[in-house]
């Protein structure tokens, strides 16, 4: 049984990731902001016989995020797989946004993914761990109506490629799934469950550092 950490869990992709990895015999830890919603996800996963720990944190606040990681580590020994699925999903024109808000977005969308890897580096190295990042099609085709998010996903994709090159010498695999359309539960291709399968395939095969889906 591997310990899977998912940072950023909602009722869509985050929950599908937890279900997909959990139903393949893994222990799941979830971090997100709303503890009531997390407890709901916990009950759902437990009904599917998936062992799970939940801990709330504001991903924008790095110390809050680290504290959440520490609280989970009091209950489990380490993390084998880290999935960074957090994002600031704001519809805001790039020319109308403020630097203050865009900096907040950058922390959530990109910077704190890096900080989590740095914080957990020792145990990821010791366990030949895996880091998976949720990418977006805005990294390839930016949309000025989603200006900050487009910039963040481009930076996250860049970070993924950097970390892949940097950490493979430590036997840490880093990959990203770049989702090229909006997630939709009714879609045959872009439903959360279908996308979660791509993450699991990437985790199993580790034969490329990016799936463009």
Summarize the structure.
With 213 residues, the protein is of the alpha/beta class.
Biggest pleated-sheet summary = 7 strands, parallel
* Relative helix content: 40-55%
Radius of gyration: 16 Å
CATH architecture name: 3-Layer(aba) Sandwich
Sheet-strand content, in percent, reads 15-25%
Secondary structure elements and pairings:
Blueprint: E1 3-7, H1 13-22, E2 27-32, H2 35-47, E3 52-56, H3 62-73, E4 81-84, H4 99-119, H5 121-126, E5 130-136, H6 147-167, E6 173-179, H7 192-205, E7 210-212
Parallel strand pairs: 1-2, 1-4, 2-3, 4-5, 5-6, 6-7
Helix pairs in contact: 1-7, 4-6
Structure, explained:
The protein has 213 residues and is of the alpha/beta class. It has a single domain (3-212), classed as 3-Layer(aba) Sandwich (Rossmann fold). The protein is 46% helix and 17% strand. Strand 5, helix 6 (147-167) and strand 6 (173-179) form a beta-alpha-beta unit. The longest helix has 21 residues, at 99-119. The radius of gyration is 16 Å and the shape is globular. The protein starts with a strand and ends with a strand.
List keywords for this structure.
globular; Rossmann fold; seven-stranded parallel β-sheet; 7 strands
